Amino acid sequence: MSGSAASRGSALTGLRVQLRVLGALTLRELGTRFGRDNLGYLWLFVEPALLGGAIGAVHHLSGHGLPGGLHVATFWVMGYIPYYLLRGIINRAPVAIVSNQSLLYHRNISIFDIILARDLLEGAAVGGAMLAFALFFGMTAGEWPREPEKVVIGMLMMLGFSHGVAMLIAAGSVYTELFDRVVHLFTYISLPATGAFFMVFWLPTELQQAALWIPTVHMFEIVRNGQFGNQVPTHYDVGYVLGWVAGLNLLGMAAIRRARQDLVI
């Protein structure tokens, strides 16, 4: 066997091991969070769907229209569910290492694996809720996503962004409990600025430029562009978002690597 073939074989073996590790960690997280009964697993998808649906129903019943003639319930639900992904991943980050610290005795398990498994689980749950609502609004109101691939891209960007922030928070939590106390408060306080409940074109011109400095605003605009198409104008820069995602993930990986060196098991 040539050296290159041996290297490829070794890489594939390593990949298979890591995929098995991620699968096992995901199943463990499922059991820890929702128990072993079927209703517990079902709640993984029902919770974000119920919360998003309740917000959409309240605004729909209020009878207030939206600029551009957007379907009220669709707008609010499709805004809340990506935020639920952001909030869920970040709020659980402070305890990600502490609650799974004993797993680090296993040579093949790293802090990165633990956080990635938790975040992929959250992404799958919220993605399931998003799909369910897309089908619901499509069948009941004719509000099918105009460009569903953009909805998927926007959600994947939100997942990548949230994962990078989560790694930084998890690493910081190794050194101080402050993160556990302030992260939940910060996610609620920051909600109005994330872009979950407004569109850029609603804002005065001077505020539009300020809003577009916030990376999550771009992600919500991408999701809404995928849902509503050219019905309303959207403003986003994919390159800007990818820069944030890459930067946060690189910083996050460096942070958890440093935290692992200082972690006392």
How would you describe this structure to a colleague?
- The protein is mostly helical and 265 residues long.
- It has one domain.
- It is 74% helix and 0% strand.
- It has 10 helices and no strands.
- The longest helix is centred in the N-terminal third of the chain and has 32 residues.
- The termini are far apart.
- The model has no long low-confidence stretch (mean pLDDT 85).
- The assigned structural class equals mainly alpha
Biggest beta sheet summary? none
Shape: globular
Task: Tell me the Rg in angstroms.
Answer: 20 Å
Parts with pLDDT < 50 across at least 5 consecutive residues: none
Counted beta strands: 0
The average pLDDT is: 85
Strand content: under 5%
DSSP helical segment count: 10
N-to-C series of helices and strands: HHHHHHHHHH
Question: How many discrete domains?
Answer: 1
**Distance separating the two termini:** 41 Å
What proportion of the residues is helical, as a percent range?
A: over 70%
Question: What is the strand and helix layout of this fold?
Answer:
Elements: H1 3-34, H2 38-62, H3 72-92, H4 111-141, H5 148-173, H6 178-189, H7 191-194, H8 205-211, H9 215-228, H10 238-262
Helix pairs in contact: 1-2, 1-4, 2-3, 2-4, 3-4, 3-5, 3-9, 4-5, 5-9, 5-10, 9-10
